[in-house]
Specification:
149 residues, seven-stranded mixed β-sheet, alpha+beta, 7 strands
Length: 149
């Protein structure tokens, strides 16, 4: 069965929490946060699943009176890395934002996460700001942005 990309539901909650814990060793979203995001009109949470497992998720956030969306997170299961899951999730998010009238998407990434930075650069994201001491452990971040205009 081909993987399915769809809006996340409460039925995905346990798998989202498990994937988050397996993917990130800092600033993890917990069960309560995911539950709140699933019910929020300003959160766009999508999952890519096959018959057996959650392959990945993407989370985009919007704010009233702003046309700039925020890519808060993309997580890909370790077994699915290198198979295009991240690409599918990002491309879906970019298309959704464009179709909803976004003027840009911004994101934050650790400066030492070279793979993610190069991934986003392939989609024309550019570093627009350095964020000193942004992550736990005093790690710096980059703010990256893709403008649609």
């Amino acid at each position: 069965m081909a993987p399915t990309l769809r809006k996340a539901t409460l039925a995905d909650l346990a798998d989202l929490v498990a994937l988050e814990a397996a993917t990130f060793n800092y600033s993890q979203l917990g069960r309560q946060s995911f539950r709140r995001l699933l019910q929020s009109p300003s959160a766009h949470l999508f999952v890519l699943r096959d018959a057996q497992q959650l392959l990945g998720y993407s989370l985009l956030l919007t704010r009233k009176n702003s046309r700039v969306w925020r890519l808060y997170s993309i997580a890909v299961a370790s077994a699915a890395r290198g198979t295009g899951v991240g690409r599918k999730l990002l491309e879906h998010g970019l298309e959704l934002a464009r179709s909803q009238g976004a003027s840009a998407i911004s994101l934050e990434v650790k400066v030492d996460n070279k793979a993610a930075i190069e991934f986003y650069r392939r989609y024309d994201f550019e570093v627009v700001d350095v964020l000193p001491d942004y992550y736990p452990g005093h790690a710096d971040g980059y703010r990256m942005r893709l403008s649609f205009t």
